Amino acid sequence: MKVIEKISEFFGKYMALIVLAVAALALFVPQSSLWIDTSWINYLLMVVMFGMGLTMKPRDFALVFKRPKDILVGTAAQFIIMPALAFGLSKLFQLDPALTAGVVLVGTCPGGTSSNVITYLSKGDVALSVGMTSVNTLLAPLLTPAITWLLLQTTVRVDVWAMFWSIIQVIIIPVALGFVINRFFGKFTEKAVAVLPSVSTVAICLIIAAVVSHNAEKNYTSGVLVFAVVILHNLLGYAGGFGLGKLLKMPPEKVKALSIEVGMQNSGLATSLAGTAFSGLAMATVPGAVFSVWHNISGAILAGFYRRWKNSSENEK
Question: What pLDDT is recorded for position 84?
Answer without folding.
Answer: 96
